[in-house]
Specification:
Chain lengths: 273, 263
């Protein structure tokens, strides 16, 4: 489908498949100084090998891509695909401004990391985890598989077709995508599903009971049942919002977790729970 | 646990951590995926699956989100789960072993980034020489080798540390394990709060409430909540498009990535 639309030759297709596989590894040699630069060079090697035939041109291209780069690997293939199309053009047109290849890379990596993180890390991963954990807690292996499939099928779609989209549509496509509002819609939709899942997780996965009993004029009343009658899962929701407030005030997550462990143990010793 | 099992656990952990980065983050280095694999190696899949889900919930709060340095949930979970199964202990024991190991393990993550950075002059030199084969080999080596020390430590701890771990576990009084069991119910609140912090905006709060109500009053399972969410999102976006463009939205409904770019 997509290959016919862009009328790619067999050789183009072969090169782009290789770029796709290599872009997957983008973040595997991440470091603090150049971040994903080596991964980017690795992704561009098939293009450089095919388009440049003199040693000098190859060295120039390799050095061009040895620059700081950092984005979400899932979205990275859109950018490597785009770079590939620009390298092809640069190799055929001597007047092509080669500086624009890096300029475009740098201008896209930030927005793409933002979109990718909010869709894949922020929403899709949470949805996959929520469904996976809820099944796996009862020992169901299906939860593990479902978790992998829910995340990886859409992510793989973007990883794979990203290269072709970036290559075929060229630099104009980002403009198109933002103008059509597509990115905004996807981010918003993912946010809706993500927040609903988090709300559901808050009710099913934070679970504790208060066994305290109050004595009102001779009638014994279990506190827990009162809370349950007012609003089921009220306590887990309050606890989660308490943590949310504490985190917003700058509390360290690991300290809150240690505090909970202390509360659990002290509560057991005091016979509260 | 036998030395062979310890070796197998360490090698599998090494490969899965390596391939996580090599295959564009398919989320295979999470406790939810790793612990069942450890369970399979140790001969107790069920405990592996349950421990994975429990530890995933606890570590939800410290997992890597957008480039921050995490406590190494991977190392801790694998060690805790393998030990708990080997000693015939419960999921709470897996947790109490996993957390301290995870905090030590985060040093290795930092170390990996630093070690990879040391090779930047090599990258520069190979670029200057136009030596693409060397660049490819360096990329492969730097992807997998810096993860190796962590897994060697894991192997040593699993193979030779079970005596010490057993001693520590037997020293923990029952009231502490019970208390930790209670705490496993509280701790997911931290992770969920961290997720909320990342996603929260007052405009979107109503969707959080919808998720809460669907579960609390209608007892809809998680998959159902997600499906309702997707349907709701599609409806809302279609309505928004209709009001924006004034044409029936059905024509422009999101049906596939490449169609949408095609105006």
């Amino acid at each position: 489908m997509i290959k016919e639309r862009f009328q790619l030759s067999k050789e183009d297709d072969k090169m782009l498949k290789s770029v796709f596989w290599r872009t997957m590894t983008l973040s595997s040699t991440y470091n603090y100084e150049k971040m994903q630069a080596l991964g980017y060079i690795y992704s561009m090697i098939p293009v450089i090998k095919r388009q440049y035939h003199t040693k000098e041109e190859q060295i120039e291209a390799l050095q061009r891509h040895n620059e700081i780069f950092n984005t979400t690997p899932t979205m990275g293939s859109l950018i490597t695909g785009l770079s590939a199309s620009m390298e092809v053009e640069a190799s055929q047109n001597p007047n092509f401004d080669k500086g624009s290849i890096n300029a475009l890379k740098v201008s896209l990596m930030g927005p793409f990391a933002g979109i990718g993180d909010s869709i894949f890390q922020g929403s899709l991963r949470i949805i996959a985890l929520g469904i996976g954990i809820s099944l796996a807690l009862s020992g169901n292996v299906l939860g593990v598989l479902l978790h992998l499939l829910i995340y990886n099928i859409p992510a793989h779609f973007v990883r794979y077709y990203g290269v072709y989209l970036g290559y075929g549509l060229g630099s104009g496509f980002i403009k198109k995508a933002t103008e059509s509002g597509l990115m905004g819609y996807i981010t918003k939709g993912a946010g809706i599903v993500g927040l609903m899942t988090v709300g559901a997780m808050c009710c099913t996965m934070v679970s504790f009971q208060i066994p305290a009993v109050v004595n009102i004029q001779g009638t014994e009343l279990a506190l827990q049942s009162i809370f349950d009658q007012i609003f089921p899962n009220l306590l887990p929701i309050l606890l989660t919002f308490g943590c949310f407030k504490a985190l917003n005030k700058g509390a360290k997550p690991i300290l809150i977790m240690l505090l909970f462990m202390v509360i659990g143990v002290v509560g057991k010793i005091a016979g509260l729970f | 646990m036998s030395v062979f099992q310890a070796l197998l656990v360490a090698v599998v952990t090494w490969l899965m951590v390596g391939f996580e980065a090599w295959l564009a983050y398919p989320i295979i280095n999470t406790p939810l995926v790793l612990c069942p694999v450890v369970g399979l190696i140790m001969g107790d899949l069920h405990t592996g699956v349950v421990a994975g889900a429990t530890l995933q919930l606890i570590f939800l709060g410290v997992m890597q989100i957008g480039g921050t340095l995490p406590a190494d949930a991977t190392l801790g979970s694998v060690f805790g789960t393998a030990m708990a199964i080997a000693l015939g202990q419960s999921v709470e024991v897996a947790m109490s072993l996993a957390i301290p190991v995870a905090m030590v393990g985060s040093m290795f993550t930092f170390l990996g980034y630093v070690v990879r950075g040391l090779f930047n002059p090599w990258v520069e030199r190979f670029c200057k020489e136009g030596n693409m084969t060397a660049l490819e080999r360096l990329h492969l080596a730097l992807a997998f080798l810096p993860e190796l020390p962590k897994c060697l430590v894991l192997f040593a701890a699993l193979a030779f540390g079970s005596g010490l771990a057993e001693q520590i576990v037997s020293m923990i009084p029952a009231v502490v394990t019970d208390g930790l069991d209670y705490a496993t119910g509280l701790m997911p609140a931290v992770g969920i709060a961290l997720l909320l912090k990342m996603m929260w905006s007052n405009k979107m709060a109503v969707y959080f409430a919808l998720g809460v109500v669907l579960v609390s009053f209608f007892k809809i399972p998680m998959l159902g909540v997600a499906i309702v969410g997707v349907i709701l999102a599609v409806i809302l976006i279609m309505e928004e498009q209709k009001t924006k463009s004034g044409v029936p939205a059905a024509v422009a409904a999101p049906s596939g990535e490449e169609d949408l770019f095609n105006d």
